[in-house]
Sequence to fold (159 residues):
Amino acid sequence: MKSLEKWADRVYSENDFGRSIATSLSGLIGLALYLLTDDWIIAAFSAIISFPVIRLVSTGINEKVDRKKQRNIEKGNTAYEYQKLSEQEKLVVNAFVKAGGSVLTWGQINRSNLSFSAIESLIQREVLWTSVTADGFTETFNLNSNIFDIANEEWSESS
Fold:
């Protein structure tokens, strides 16, 4: 009786989604087969054999759902950060979008009519930073790619 209690405690305290679903479904399979065939050996083997397959499938589905949920949370947080930007800061971000990428050279920034205080503000917000291109000669401004994606979506919808 003690081992049955330990088993029940383990099953009901389990927080592994795949294992929980697999335990439930393989138990249902075993019970259904026992009721249909009145053979506990077939029912037990069916439950044991189905458990790992169900666990793999349910764990995969759960991980996919969790990844999508995490991406949506990150996108929502980024959209919130984008909405908090001032109009001048958004003009700077939109300059990147209009240029077609999240990197602009110093020359491109200097030729634009963008507010340098908005540029500096974006740097302080850690949305924009300076870097050097792969050739090691050209200095650039790099925009946070998640902010770029949100602004690009907004710009595409308004066009």
